[in-house]
Amino acid sequence: MKRSRINDIMSAADDMIRSYGFTLPPFAYWSPKDFAANADKAKHLIDARCGWDITDYGAGDFDQMGLFLFTLRNGRLADLQRGGGMCYAEKLLISRQDQLSPMHTHVIKAEDIINRGGATLVVELYGSDDQGNFAEDKGGTVWCDGIHRDYAPGEKLTFAPGESVTLQPGDWHAFWGEGGDVLIGEVSTVNDDETDNVFRDPIGRFANIDEDEAPRHLLVSDYANWLAPR
Questions:
Q1: Which residues on adjacent β-strands are paired with residue 112?
Q2: pTM, whole model, 2 decimals?
Q3: Which residues pair with 183 in a beta bridge?
């Protein structure tokens, strides 16, 4: 993805988020220079990979397959493993009309996916085999706003604003906006996008970036290269 396109997506996403009454935290608006100057104080944000995340999954066609994310907060895997402390994470996502977030599951993370506003969110679901692999002939069970619901293999559940689904490890899912763009909330256990996303097809999690202009704000995938060692 071109950095200029990423900068434009950031601006449009911020406008959409604000239109639904949400405001991103102050560090969202740091310039790369600001972030570098605050790197020591912001060690948790950097280590937890909080911040902007825009991906085309390495496929080069963001409009067809892509996702906007902003990680607002993220706990520590060590806390999750010991069963106490900051065991949770929260994100805002934007799924554009007919823009696919491809089929995947998580090994550790359980998550609530919430339609916070906009059009209809469509979530396509499959179950797992005994080894946790994608199983095209298996369904499963989810909670929709706390209500038990069985799903058939490949069933597409729809969620209007205010509605949500709880996904457990082993619930294979893809999603997109139907009839327009959707602002999505994600509340989950600790999030690790480096190792805990398991895709059905061999694709990447992060975009390859063409630096055609300077970044407006850093992406989480920029931190290792753009911030000085702490």
A1: 166, 187
A2: 0.94
A3: 94, 117
